[in-house]
Structures are given as structure tokens and as C-alpha cells.
Specification:
10 helices, globular, disordered C terminus
Amino acid sequence: AAEAGPVAMAAAVLAHREEAPEAENKFRPAAAAGATHDSPAAIATVREWIDERGGDGWSAEERSWARGAAPRFLRAHRGELDSAKAGIGRTVEWRRTGIKPDSWAGRYSEENHKFCFIPLGLDLFRRPVVYGCPARASCSDVDSTIDHVVMDLEYAFANEFAPDPEERCAGQWVWIVDFHGFGLAHATNPSLGRRFVSVFDQHCPERLGCLVLLDPPFVFSMLLGALRPFLDPATAQKIVTVSSSDTEAELRAVLPEDMLGWVLEALRREPSPGSLPFPLPSSAYWSHPAEDASESSEKLPVAE
């Protein structure tokens, strides 16, 4: 059976609160969003608190991760210092068991198609781009899907705090969900949806930059409608629906040429597991992903 994951995950990601974007167009990131909540003074206060956590058993790596995450948690918690600190603390605890390098299933291929959650590279605004298509995946297990996606996003943001500014990626990602081959079975996986609401809401705030829906059918509109009470206007503005006839013209505003060409070719392929153009798009940023799980600790974000 094809995987329900990307569809349920897309809806789940939208269910948590984020700051209202001030975008010039529907793809451009909102650089000024939440600026009043992550002021330099607020960030400094939270980072001072983080630095003191070494005595509470936080490792140097955990404190470094938390320092980098401080602005995002401040924005997500509307500048409430105690709330942001509590959120960071819960996430540090969660990461001790939720980050599982051994759970990463590796690159998607004709033979390895358990999860259709495929990092493609960076968009024109240096945001990691992930392509997903429920009909192209062969696994629907909730736990393994979540574990794999969490690790893929860990690797996607590995260069967020790279020493060389030219090598850094942005702190938000773009999710392209391809609905070709989508059916009613893909729309119903409440367990996966609930789990992803928890993960994205509590532990990955302010990460989603844009959700691009390629030819979503009416049944998905019904699913999204069910979640509408949980969405705020700021999050809803990050949803971009693109029809088949407009795909090339629309996505040219956000994807580099090689990535755009790959997506267009993917849309021409039969929507079934393993049926995608190979090799996957490549760039300097993605030329050496963490193939070996034992190396993953060296590839996690580090904040100055």
C-alpha cells in the first residue's frame, strides 16, 4: 500500500502556530517576521540561561543546539521568556531519544522507496527543499516514517550555522507535496497526523517556510478543512497551491533550474514507488549528505 505519510504530515505541519509572514510574493521568505519577539536582548537572556544548563546535565552539543534554536522558540512563544525556555528544555530532552541516526533509511532510489521524503537541495533563497509524494512510497508505518523524516530534516539544516556564510542554509524549509496518484486511502492516517502535530509544534517551531501543494484533489481540501479550526492566518499564508498547467511558471520563482527540471520530469512519471528521475538533483550543499549514521553527530547545527 502506498504511504499516507506526506499528506498527513503536510496537514500536521500546518497545525502549529507561526509568525505572520511579510512576504513580497507567495514564495519569498519573510525575513522580518517575529522580529519583535526575538530581539537581541531576549535572545541574549535565553542564551545566558542555556549556558547555565551545563550544571544541569546538558552536554556541550545540547547547549550549542539550544543557542541556535533560541530565536525560533522565542518567535513561536511570542516572546514569552519562560515559555520559550520551557519549550527549549522539553526539546533538549526529546532530542535525546527522538534523534535516531540509525533510523535514517538513506537516499530514495528505485530499490529504496520506503519513504518519499526527498531532500532536493536549496531553493533560490537558500532554504532546504523537500519533495514528497504519497503514491511513490511503500511504507506507512507511523514510527519509522517519523524517525526517518526527523533525521532527514536534521541533515537538511546541518549547514545552518556553517562558519562560512556562503555555505549556510536558511533556517526554514520548503515542502513540495506532489498529489499525483493520490487517493482516499492517503488522506486518512490520524495516528501519523497526531504524532506530527506534536513533533512540529513542540520541537520544530518556525521551521516551515512554504508548503507547495501540486495539484491537490478535492479530498485533500476536505482534510484541510477539518484542520481549519487549528490553523491561524499566519500559517495559512504559507500554503501555495499550484496546478499542473502553471507548475513550470510558478516554481521558476523559487527553484533553481536543475531542481525545477527534476520536479517537472517527476510529474511526468508514473506515480508509483521508485518511479522518479535518477540521479536526484545535486549541488555543492547536498553533495555529501550523511550516508553513514555514525557521522551524524558531526553534521548537526552549531550556533555561535
